[in-house]
Amino acid sequence: MSESPDTRSLVSASSQLNLMEIDTIDDKEFDIPQVDTPPTLESILNEPEDEEEPFILEDTCLLNTENIDAHSCETSSLASSDSGDRTHLKRKRKTVELSTTVHGSVLRHSILKGISAQIVSAAVNLNQALRLCLGSTATGAEYGAVSALSINHDCTRLLCGFAKGHITMWDLANGKLLRTITDAHPPGTAILHVKFTDDPTLAVCNDSGGSVFELAFRRLMGMRTCESRCLFSGSKGEVCNVEPLLTAPDLKDHPITQYSLLAMASLTKILVIGLKPSLKVWMTFPYGKTDPTSVPQLAWQFVPVQKVVNPVLAFCRGDTVHFLLVKKDETGTIHVIKQRQLQLNCDIISLNWINSRTLVVMDSGEKLRVVDRPSQEELESLDVAEVQLVYNSSHFKSLATGGNVSQALALVGEKACYQSVCSYTGQMVLLGTKSAHILTLRNWRERVDCLLKQERFVEALSLAWSFHEGTAKAVLGLFGDPAKRKGVVADKMIEILFQYVERSVKKCPEHGKIQIMEQHFQDMVPVMVDYCLQLQRTDLLFNQLYTRLVENCVARGVFLESLEPYIVSERLGCVTAPVMRDLLTHLQDNNMMDSVENCLIHLDITSLDIQQVVQMCWDNQLYDAMIYVFNRGMNDYITPMEKLFQVIGPPLREGRALTGRHCNVFPSSLSCSLAGRAYPLGDIPEDLVSQVKNQVFEFLIRLHSAEAGQEEELYPYIRTLVHFDTPEFLNVLALTLEDFKNDKQALEYQQRIVDILLKVMVENSDFTPSQVGCLFTFLARQLAKPDNTLFVNRKLFDQVLEFLCSPDDDTRHTERQQVLLELLQVGGVIQFDEGRLLGLAEKAEFYQICEFLYEQNHLYDKILDCYLRDPLRKEEIFNYIHNLLSMPGYSSEEKHCVWEKALLHIAELVTLDPAKSADLVAMHFPEEVRPIITRLQDDHLVFQFLRCLLDQSATSREGPHPQPLLRLSPDLHELHIGLLCRFTPRQLTDFLKASQDYRLEEAVQITEQYQVHEATSYLLEKKGDSHGAFQVLLKTLKDKLGAVTSEKRSEEEGETGREEESPLQRVEGSLGDIIALCHRSSQSLNQEQRGVLWFPLLEAMMSPQKLLKGPDTRTTSEVLKELTMKVLNSMSSFIPLPAIIQRILQDPVYGKGKLAEIQGLILGMLETFNYEQTLLETTTSLLNHDLHWSLSHLRAAVSRGLHPRQDHCNICLQQYRRRQDSPDDIIIFSCGHLYHCQCLQRKGSGHAEPRLLQVWSCYKCISSQRGRGGDRVTTETGRGRSTSLAQVSQSTIAPFVCRVMFRNPQERAVTTTQTKIPNSFHNVHRNMSNVFYNQSSGCF
Length: 1340
Description:
The protein is an alpha+beta fold.
């Protein structure tokens, strides 16, 4: 049958979409023999795989876009051209989000006319003219609503599925009904999906029962029939989506098409099966954890990968899209390769390919997202809520047949829109409640024009440039080779640039601030310049666009200033003469001379007016640009140096410092010329390097400058360079010597320059020692080289040596020594006589020079004298001695000499730093401590040394050199105690407490000799004589009280450290010491001995108060009364209160007076008593409350019944009643474990405790806890699982006897009473009549 016009209108493609034309087939059915009923898919899942067609599931590599051939399918498909940008390969998987890259509007949204909600089914051509109206209202009433549609690949047949389970086939050429299928699937289920395959005689359907059926169309004897077989039963898992792999005509010979692949999505996984040549399962893939309301989605697409086109299945349920690549290799093995997944922040309800690189997904918020799969970049987002999308919820719930579907399938159907969203050859169709909508890809010009209509020129240029470079996504309409595509896009960009310039010039504000106008053009001009340079169209930039901008003076200035960054970055190397002239004039007029110089040194010299530029540079001191013009334009490297010398020469001769931009130009340009580099950037041409160096040498050795005056000295250029920066000039000269070892002429120049330098610097007093030293250091380095060609008179070195070591010149002593040291270190020592050099160094006090010479001769002991005599390096002698005596590489004789020399100067070392000296002695002189102390004549020096030595011996000092522990004899400790008594008596007690190496008797004698009473008291107390210690402190207290009450207060001997304290403060401090002593001693004394301590102290405090009379002593009396109360409060803890009151009343001071005199003391004691009584009562109340709370919770815990887990012993595994005629003790724990008492005793889980019958532990719980990592059980009282235990005694006659026990936190049980209980193991109650509280262990 020939193709009808109507059919052609349905399948023909528009010129913009370039849809593939599909050849039609004749309207006849293939006569295929009938086959037996095929088995279901479940019966095939367990079959072994065919050996001839092996299958491999690979989860190896991600999709490698480097191997994708973007143009391997040069057909009318809408494949986008990849940019070649591989940055996305380096990024980790991430959620696709809106990128900063400009994509423009990717989709065009249109509404199809003539489609309304009342039409049952219709066919429409591309002109949106209604062609067919299929079915009738009667059909709808009988079959229900249309629930699924499918058109075959040549658009000649239409399959319709209905809500009541019917399926019809229509001829789209004439609207004729060809088949009505009623028995293809079980009745009572709605059709969810019906899909044609590549085979026109084969289709599949999916019903609301979750089953999938294959429909085979036959034509026998002129009759159209349909045979059905079950591919998947809904009883094994409900399928809610099916998708066959459809192949384009140009891919019909693909090796995968012969298998007629079908993807099925159930609620838990996807399955891929092959319908041909026999039914076979290819793979299954689970979703993982997903939202039960999410809708499974499937979509096939042929994708070019590694220059081969293979099908890729995209599937998802939720927010993650997975990709599976199916391919067949040369051996016939089928590979299913997992590709990189796509993560989206949305719940996907529709998934479609719009071309081989672009996906269109719809989320549950009815928002379309266009995503580029290789880069996972979101290209566009559209809100299609206004479409009012039709959902398939009623069909998934099978409401037309009674709603007999599972709850899971009905839940998925809430968001199912499978039949309302579909894609075909680069376009998507959306079915709304009142209209149909179509979304198509825009071609590249249309995407750019959309931005231009909105006057978004910058974004339009960015998008066009991405088309030009091939980095754009979802590209449509660009064909041909890359060069041709670039040319087409470049023409479009030029058109945009002209529009942008015209629009900017026309819309420039004519009035207002100049800053507003400048900002207007600053937003446009850099963009224009940048794209012109990227397109390599400088002719367009300068000849056309600039000409248009010149009309506006503000635009002209912005344009010229915007050229600088491009010139500096060398993106713009050549400028036309008119533009260059305008640029220099504009920058100069605006005093932007730095910009002028930056531009000049980066531009091609041919575009410059050399005379104009040189004059401008000289007038404005643009020396870098001037040198650049001379060097590059005229190959002249000497003239700019001569001009610069005229600038820097006079101030240097006058001794003035150089300032301004010219200060470093002259030496820098000279250094570059000698090094073969161009100044300020670049390199000298290789053929001119030698010539330039010779010219520079000739310039340097000139006797006079070009414009020399009568006062000018010889060799002005060399003098100027040496004065300016001697080290830098000599470094350049040294580099030149290395580069021209074989150049005879260059070597002659170098020798000449060296001779000039010697003549100028040695015979002239204008140069500093450092400058002269730099010269001779340079010469020494050169002379020390084996291939040296320079000649220097040795007498000059002697002359320099005398100059540097002149003892009459004290100026710059350190500088002269450092210069001479550097000269010797680089090999200059061979130029001098060592004996003479050493003598001159000693006279000049150059101790570093002496050290250098001694070290070369291995006279290390003499180096110590150098350190001791050098005031700047004295502190370094300790490290030097330690390193030499510790480090290997020195002979024993050398170390011994240094050891003896250090011991000889030990007094000087201790005077210099006692701490470091002590470290040194502890490390290297441990046996010489006594001789060292003997050599130290000064007692204070001995005291400092011993203190540091004892500190070091007590704890190893932290530092770079750890020392071993050094223990000193007791007599040295006692010597230190005596020195402490003399120099720092307040530190003596701390030392006595920290040290244990002294003898008590001798220490006591020493402290008594120097009358350090606090230390004596401490020693007596340590000795065990508490009373003696008390008497010493009491005497001290009385003396201080006497000083308070006496008219003449004399300072106590040995208390010089408290001169700043008042007498009352001294009394308070001494009283605190004696009270602390009484507290410590009273703990081990009886009542009578305590009174011997406390009452004398009380009397000592009370007796001085009677001597204080008169108003002047009121303050002192109040303080003494407060101190007396302190004594009374302290002694009340050890002395009964009646005894204290009796002793007070017996005192003659208070006994003979009135009661009012002692009222204050009595009331104070009573207040203290009341406070302590209240505190005791409160504490007792709190303890009783806590005890009552604990006992109440304990009673509640032990009153609960026990329920054993089993009726046998957990140790012997026998019944609790082993024999009827013998009684057994049964132990039941609150954890539910039951034991025989004898079994627990054999395992050692019970033991007796005082006042208790028995303590038990649950053997099984304790064993498991130990196995988990320890014996410690952390259970809380009343909260643990095994917190109580009942012991039950059984017999054949008597009832059970319960011994109620409570376990402590270590899972013990305490037997307390015996009570008769009912004969039942499952409800054992416990009563507690007596509870014992163990205060030490804290358990009941």
